[in-house]
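Summarise what follows for lecture notes:
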Amino acid sequence: MKAPRRGGARGEGQAKSAPVLTRQAEDYLKAIYEIERDGEPAGTTAIAARLGIASASVSGMIRRLARQGLMTVERYRGVQLTPAGRRLALQMIRRHRVLESYLVTRLGFGWDSVHDEAERLEHAASPALIEAMAAALGDPDEDPHGAPIPRADGTVDDSRLRTLDDLAVGTAARVARMSDRDPALLRYLAELGIKPGASLRLVDRAPFEGPLTVAVGRARHVIGAAVARKVFVR
C-alpha cells in the first residue's frame, strides 16, 4: 500500500494562502476602502480620482482583484470589497498610519510631510517591523492626523464623521481628523490652530458655496468651503 502523497491538491479544510499583491493592487484596495467608508459608490471614476490616475486604466485591475476574490463588481453599484479584500485593505492602512505615527513621534518628521514617506515605506515594511513600531509607540489609537489606526486583529473604529462644512451656523465641535494628502493644506490649517483635538465654532457661512467664518479660541478665520470639507469634526 502506497503512503499518501504530501502536497498536491489542496484539501477542502486547508486554508487558502493570501494572494500576493503588487504595490498598485494594495493602493487600489486602500482607495476602495476609503471610498466605501465615505459612503460613496466605488465606481471607476471615483477610484481613478482617489488614486490620481486615468479612468481607463482602472477596469483591468478591478477584474484582476475580483478574480482573486478581493472584490465584487455589481452593475450600477460599482465595486465592493469582500471580507478578504477589506482585511487586506485594513492591513495596509494600519501599516501606513503606524509608519506616520513613528515618523512623527520618534524621528521628528512634521505631520505635514509624513504621508508621502509612509506611502513609500508601507509596501516594503514587514508585519514584524510594523508591530515593533506600534509596540514602541504604546499601540496608539490614532495617527498624527487623528485618523484611527486599525488594530492588529483587523478591527477599526472608523465611523463616518461630519465635516466642518456640514455644521450649522452657531454649532461648536471638536476637530477629529483631517486629510493627510496635502502638506500645504496641513500647514495652513495648523497656522489657524485647526488640528485634531482643537475646539471650534462655525460663526457664519456665505451663500452659494461661499467661505465659512470659524472661531478657534478667540481668533476668527475665514476658510473656503472646499477646505472645510477636508476637516472632520465630532
Notes: The beta strands are 71-74, 78-81, 162-163, 172-178, 199-205, 212-216, 219-223, 231-233. The longest helix spans residues 83-105.
